[in-house]
UniProtKB/TrEMBL annotation:
This is 2OG-Fe(II) oxygenase. GO terms for molecular function: ferrous iron binding; L-ascorbic acid binding; peptidyl-proline dioxygenase activity. It comes from Gelidibacter maritimus. It comes from the Bacteria. Its cofactor is L-ascorbate. The lineage of its organism: Bacteria, Pseudomonadati, Bacteroidota, Flavobacteriia, Flavobacteriales.
Length: 213
């Protein structure tokens, strides 16, 4: 019998399978070249244009109910991205994100229903102290997602490393991750404490969360 639920063949995606494996095993995944050079370029240009239009705001800590700006904790400026108003760069961004989210939902029963993403620019000298991405009054964030949009040739001496604090058999272990362009880091929002070390030059990214409910 024909039905609209006729089997659409499920095609295994090796990259997504690897991401899922890494998250299940290590609580985080690092993906090189999730966005290729051209994609990074258009996304960076979109960030830079909006920043030049003065659309960015100082980032706060806490959520929208409960937010305060504390420069001794975080110094980046951000702009939330509205998917319904996406420009061509942002459409390309959400196409890739949505493809991964669909796959996660088909294979992992994570139940991701919502997402939220913002551009972030860390001016020279800024940082984001050690923290966790969920709030006392809201635990819907399941996966944190950071996508780096820096120019190619990012040097370790630029600083701005993302440090994940992991559990290495009862002993804390630091995983240091450089914000190389095209690289994406995904981690469990409710578990992984992390920080952004001080930057010695501007540092550009898109950060977001995949959420339940
Ligand atoms: O930019 C990064 O590497 C991480 C940013 C972050 O931790 C956050 O925005 O919550
Ligand atoms: Fe964070």
């Amino acid at each position: 019998m024909n039905s609209i639920f006729q089997d659409i063949p499920f095609v295994e995606n090796p990259l997504y399978e690897r991401i899922i494996d890494d998250i299940v095993t290590h609580k985080y995944a690092i993906v090189e070249d999730f966005f290729n050079d051209d994609e990074v370029e258009v996304l960076r240009q979109s960030l830079v244009d909006k920043h030049e239009e003065n659309a960015f705001k100082k980032a706060a800590i806490g959520n929208r109910v409960n937010e305060v700006i504390v420069k001794s904790i975080r110094g980046d400026v951000i702009l939330w991205i509205d998917e319904s108003q996406a420009n061509s760069a942002e459409k390309l961004f959400f196409d890739k994100i949505n493809s991964l989210v669909d796959y996660l939902n088909k294979t992992c029963f994570l139940g991701i229903l919502h997402k939220e993403f913002h551009y972030a620019l860390y001016p020279t000298g800024t940082f984001y102290k050690r923290h966790i991405d969920t709030f006392n009054n809201d635990d819907r964030r399941k996966l944190s997602f950071v996508c780096y949009l820096n120019e190619s040739g990012w040097l370790p001496e630029n600083g701005g490393e993302l440090v994940l604090y992991l559990d290495g058999d009862g002993k804390e272990m630091e995983k240091v991750i450089y914000p190389f362009p095209g690289r994406v880091v995904i981690f469990e929002s409710q578990i992984i404490e992390h920080e952004v070390k001080p930057v010695n030059t501007e540092r550009l990214s898109i950060t977001g969360w995949l959420k339940t409910r």
